[in-house]
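Review box. Two proteins, two foldings.
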Amino acid sequence: MDLTVLRNFISIVQAGNVTAASEKIHIAQPTLSKQLRQLEHYYDAKLVLTERGSRQIILTDAGRLLFEKAKYICSLDDSVIEEIRSSERGASGTLRLSVANSRSKPLIERLLKEFGKVYPDVNFMIYESSFIEQRQQLLNGIGELGLLSTPPDRNSDIEELFRTDEYFFAVFNKNSRWLKDPERKGITLQQLKDVPVSVSSGYYEEFRQCCAKAGFSPFIKSINTTRNTALHWAAADMAVTIVPIAEGEDIEENLVVKKILDADVEIYKSVVKVKGRPLSLLALKFLEFYNEYGNAKRLCNIRSLYEESRKKQLQNA
């Protein structure tokens, strides 16, 4: 079935009669009448009735069914055409991300830099904030996707899309007096006993509990709002910084990182969206890119996210 014929049928119904539709879409009336007969022959059903003495058409049950389905089919075709065109010309627009404090640096260096090479017409709005602020930004539509350090509650209105495991690392100045055996990759909690440590406030309690299991209370030199500030203490060689780091994540060259081998704690960062809220095509393209290069566990069905977005487009059509 030629979609043009379906589109013209929609125009006939919306205009109320063949004559008005002919004038609106600039197609000869005999041609539209012929197409209408072709549709009835194709579906083997009477689609429209004309009252005696009136040119106004009345849809039969079959006609009403075809009208609704035709609108859906044509809207879906429009959506596919637009996505193909977008794919051909590359994504464009603004990707709005709500990012946990101090997470923007690895995000930019490891992902956004390469994403920008693939889609050079994309620009970014990055909002750095705490978890509470991030949640509000997402709900208010300020950020479309979130990169969280704090896991969302399972019963919340935030849906987790990707998860990257992280681990506690001890970060030293390369000339630190507390750095023993710099060639070794790991360190134990006991080796941090009596060593002044700097930690971000979001992970203070988890680290304290790990030390308690190891049989001592940590020497907390500084508790900081952000990871960047916590790392400054190691850079200044005033403390050893305890931070969560994903495998393969780079830290400044003048710092040495050692994984804390016996820190029994589950830590991860998440990519999230608001539950039930369809994503833009640009956000979906970013998720596809993240799925391939983000080194994360995928918790979502990207095809379902596309369908969710399409349904929203059709509702607004």
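Next protein.
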Amino acid sequence: MPVSSALVSRTTLANAVANAAIVVTGGAVRLTGSGLGCPTWPRCTDASFVATPELAGHGVIEFGNRLLTFALTTVAIATVVVVFRSVRRDLRALALIGFLGIPAQALLGGITVLTGLNPWTVAAHFLLSMVLVAVATTLWLRSREPGVGQPLLRRPFVLLVTGIAAATSAVLVIGTVVTGSGPHSGDPAAGRTGFDPELVSQLHADVVFLLVGLTVALLVALYAIDSPARVRRAARDLLVVQLAQGVIGYVQYFTDLPVALVLLHMLGAVLITAFTARLVWSVRGPASELPLSNDTAALRTAPRSGAVPPLR
């Protein structure tokens, strides 16, 4: 018997939360200097799979974060099982991608440890996590509706949303370069990119300004037309998260990167990723989400009348 849609929604939500949580805990590992608390991989030491007393607190923190991967894997497996037992075939690809991303992430994390926290592998590790957060968010949002839906916006708006997603990706990528050039390396022996932190921070800020500008432009345009409320809400909420993240970024920069604010900034990166995924998801939906007009009224009655006029 197929599982209920409510169970699918709850399980995919747990999966999204778990993917977000492990990013934040991973940030705590780096910010406490525990990145090499377990100096090798897949064992914690050459002789032990678990942290030993000699590794002290750093070993406990790093090994604890590794254990969380098993919890995330359990949730991801449960998500795949529930989705495949439901009638929602359209969710299967996303569920599988989310699950397969976990061993890929674990392998990349192992390479990161074995390379002594090379800043470029650390960056790749974080960016893959962001991809999984976006996939998990989309999976959850899509599970709450009966299907993928139809386009709700004209092509110029869809292109602008795509531009916002691309700018968000650029912000995240450059943000990892900033991190790899700054003081929080995860271990005193870890290398740095060699870039000037002030220069890459300015580049990061410039791209953030572009991202915020694109989001404001989209929001103004959406309110200027009779656009679907779900898209307006998604754009509005994303802008709020972007502005909050910008404030945190500036405060942490001018206060010499205190650990608490850097960790909060990492949480902000997760939220921006999730809310950007929500915006991309929002541009497709059921016909009932379209603003009521002559065209959309005809569209909603199309299954009974047979004729579907084009949206102009």
